[in-house]
Amino acid sequence: MSLAEEYTETSDDSRLERGLAYVQRNSRAYLLIAPAAVFLLAVVGYPIIETFRLSLYQSPADSNIETFVGLQHYVEIFNSDIFYRLLWQTGRWVVAGVAGKTLLGLLIAVHLKGDIRGRKFFRTAFLIPWGIPYAISAVVFRWIEHPQFGYLNAILLKLGIIEQGIGILGNPSLAWLGVVVADIWIGTPFMAIIFLAGLQSIPQELYEAAAIDGAEKWHQFRYITLPQLKSVVLIATLLSTIWTFVSFDVIWTMTGGGPISSTATLVIHIYQVGLQNGNLGRGAAYSVIGFLFLFGFAIIYLRIYTRGGDEL
Amino acid sequence: MQPDNNDRSVEDSIDRRRLLQALGAGGAIAIAGCSGDGGSGSDGGDGDSESGGGGSDGSTQSVQFLTMGVGDNIKQFFEENNAAFEDEHGVDVEFTSVTWDNARQTVNNRVDGGEAPDVSRWPARWIPQLVGKDALEPLDDMMDGEFGEQFYDGVAEGTMYNGSHYGVPWAASNKCLYYNKDVFETAGLDPEDPSLDSWQDMLDAATQIRDSDASVPALGLAGADAIETGSQYYHYHWSHGADLVNDEGMPVVNSSGAVDALSLYTDLHLEHNVTQSSPLSSTRQDIRQLFENGDLGMVIGHVYTGLNITAAKENGDVDFDYGIVQVPRGPEGRYSLFTIDTLAILSQSEHKDLARDLIRFYFDEERRFQYSKQKGFLPVVEAVGERSYFSESKNWGPFVEAGQYARARPKLGNFSEFNDRMVQAIQEALADRKSPQKALNDAQSDLEDAME
Q1: Å between B103 CA and nearest CA of chain A
Q2: What transmembrane ranges does the database entry give (chain A) (predicted)?
């Protein structure tokens, strides 16, 4: 019986009894993970609590004095236009980035699983972007897209496609795409490797049986590969969503959130408000909101996932 | 000389009148009596210092020295001099350099975390914020005494806040307009008499370059999301009679002069098409690099742009000639953004006397000369400024003269936030998302809210 099932369809009393019995049965396991749990509480729990506390205070950059303001930061944030613009820009960034990484990762994984020449080389080569520090990759992409010094414009100019360099990162309408491309390039290898591992765990017999039954490649992919990969895809996209949401270095290195804040996400804004401008209270309030968003997303996502009875 | 990231390094805080007093109406770095014990440098201090290196428990004492943006061109300077100080005083110098991008956060983290360095260099515009946090040690004992007499008065004033000195002037910089003589010649302009006195003159020249066979953009315009975009624009702003804050420290960024200035700035790109493509992608470093490569007609830059080109020419990397003139004047005058970096002692320091010794050591006249020369910053010590190296140099001369047009950004505790909002207004206008009037009105409104 899965953990989810164990806590459903029971009355309150029996639920408590069963819960205690469960803990008793697994007491050794809990004991073993206790040191790690205590450590996590210290390094994760304390900052979270401190951030919550700080978000209730006015903490100007040029003073050591903190003034209690209650929920004022939250009220002002929810009443500001910039918050909703940040939500839209963050959502756009996450959806486009995760979708791009997932689709490309799946495409690459499917092809790497096949019996192609140089498979080992490609498997290693596709990992390279993930192994490069994000900030360095971001610098490279910034230069590639630079209107005066970049390769992209140089090639387009050479081919006569454009007459003068295009500043993708300087265009408030296009800049986010220029940054998303870099993020997809960086994050795709992780997805590809995870999907590849998932693909390799699918029994070959399923494909052989389907082939005997006359299923074509697309049908095999649709009715065997995708269902079998479901758990891997869900976990990979959950992780990718969280990482993309909190991603900072790519955007910051490439555009600093500009132009006209068009590439700023919630995380970039937190840095600008809290650390760059020294308004720690306001920055902490944004952080709490971001944390709650992610927390809510993870819960909903996992609930949907465990609804079918699967366990992580 | 290698280009480095120190465009941002020398920051703020001196008013024009003071600088005029200091540098003299003629603009030359003034001749004046100089140097008290600052010239001695290695004398180990004024007697109250811990001149010996050993701690009371016999261990070697150490002094933490934090600075920013130490590029290849100045790294050796610090390595050699830190080693010399260690030898003289029998102490360790724990030297740390961080990039300018991380500087402010590093300083705030260390101060807030109770791990502040003993000595640190930073822009003078950070002083109000750090004083507000009680993070800085007043240095009136040094600056009001013989040591302080070595500095230009106006420069020394730049380290003052609320009546006290919270730092020692470390470096200064200002701006001039560079032009590419080869490009001017190609465009039929006189490279030896470029007639770039006013913004209109500059625009006329740029238009002629645009319409000529010159294959490079006429003018570099910064518009990227960076603090330096504000620095470049403020020349236009001030010269149109506009200001950033009034005497009460409240924002006044949307005056009619300001609108005229931003209109000119944006029209250079949107209407006249005399700039490099996509100014919104370009930082000040980008346009400086374009000019240093010979790929731009004109740019407003620091002295080290000329030094970099000179070095590149000597190495055979570039082959073009350039001239330097004053930043063009507007209807209400001519201004050159003046910035100061300071060397400060942190109030958390447990080795304040040793920290004072380190500062005195670095203010040895020859060391100051080497620093200015290698780094490309204006001298802050009069005796150094008097040297013929500066007054007779093709690269340095115009910048020395520009002292009379110097103007600093206002000292505000939240200047970073203020400047960010101004940069946003510049970008909105440059991207043609808002008219200059609307962009500045919105900025004014937001800044008023922020300053309340």
Answers
A1: 10
A2: 29-49, 93-112, 124-144, 174-197, 232-252, 284-304
Domain count for chain A, please give it.
1
Does A5 map to a domain? no
Terminal alpha carbon distance of chain B: 45
Q: What is the pLDDT of residues B102-116, one digit of tens each?
A: 788 888 888 888 899
Pairing of strands B160-161, B164-165: antiparallel
The answer to whether B268 and B206 have CB atoms below 8 angstroms apart is: yes
Least confident of B148-157, B263-272, B421-430: B148-157
Helix (H) or strand (E) holding B172: strand B168-173
- In chain B, positions 196-225, which contact chain A (CB-CB < 8 Å)? 223-225
pLDDT at A67: 86
Phi, psi (deg, nearest 5) at residue B163: 85, 0
The class that CATH gives domain B176-337+414-451 is: alpha beta
CB contact under 8 A, A258 and B224: yes
Q: Is residue A29 part of a domain?
A: no
Q: ipTM value of the model?
A: 0.77
In angstroms, what is the C-alpha Rg of chain B?
Answer: 22
More confident residue, A240 or B403: A240
| CATH for A80 | 1.10.3720.10
| Domain segments of chain B as ranges | 30-172+341-396, 176-337+414-451
Of A13-22, B190-199, B270-279, where does mean pLDDT reach its minimum? A13-22
| Kind plus residue range of the DSSP H or E element containing B301 | strand B298-301
Q: Does B134 sit within 8 Å of A61, measured CB to CB?
A: no
- Indicate whether A90 belongs to any domain: yes
Looking at domain B30-172+341-396, which CATH architecture does it have? 3-Layer(aba) Sandwich (3.40)
Question: What was the pLDDT predicted at B249?
Answer: 86
